[in-house]
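Note to self: keep these together.
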Amino acid sequence: MALKQTKSYAMFRGKIYGLNSETKSPVSSNDFASKLRFIVKTDEDNVHYCQVTQWLSQVGKEVYFSSTTEKGTTQKVPWDKRYENFENWKLIGVGVKGPNKQETKTFVPMDAIDGIQSKFTDGDSVFVKCTKTSSARGNNVYTNYEVNAIYTTQDEVNFESEDFEEVSDFMDEVVFCKHWWHF
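Structure:
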């Protein structure tokens, strides 16, 4: 039996780190993508590596909005109109709600990279929703946590508190395939 690549989900509540490094930028770029990488520490001993990826081939192309009234309905909008508000439509992207903000703003990944860097600093308490992808190459298994939304928590995360409970929730979909070969 083989394990096919699957898409799953993860949610973390903890403290964000890796945004304000003096020695290395949290943003890396190559010919294909720009990525913001950071960690979410969910207790004294556990960290999860998260990222926001903007594929450069998509920059300048149409973006997608989803209907807030008709489930499953989307529409394309020109790149330069991605900041506009369309009644009953919401940009498909990364949700960001920084400190002292009442409303969650949705960005395309490139804008989310800038938004996260400007709104959060190392040690901020955050709640992060991610898409988890796992794949295997040879004997190596790779797991990526691609950020779908990041919010400031209402209460400060305090790992030393007596009532502290770690939040690292995962929902995995696993598909096993068995191939039968008939000759």
